[in-house]
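Q: Structure tokens for this one, please.
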Amino acid sequence: MLTVSEVAARLKVCRSTIYNAVESGVLPHHRIGLGRGAIRISEEQLERFLERTLVEASSTSSTKVKPANVQYRGKSD
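A: Here is the predicted structure, written as tokens:
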């Protein structure tokens, strides 16, 4: 199981990007412990997330596509 920091480091994004993906429901995860719990993401959950966010090149369109419906809030790391 991976922490938010580990996932962010693998994807080379800030932790807030991962927290936003988790909170919006785009990135499946587990909550372990009391209260809100520590967030843990399995290798399989990360792989499924990456498959869903894949944007393949299109020979007919040059428009940019936002890969995931993630809302960015607050200040980034």
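A few notes: The chain has a mean pLDDT of 85. The two ends are 22 Å apart (CA to CA).
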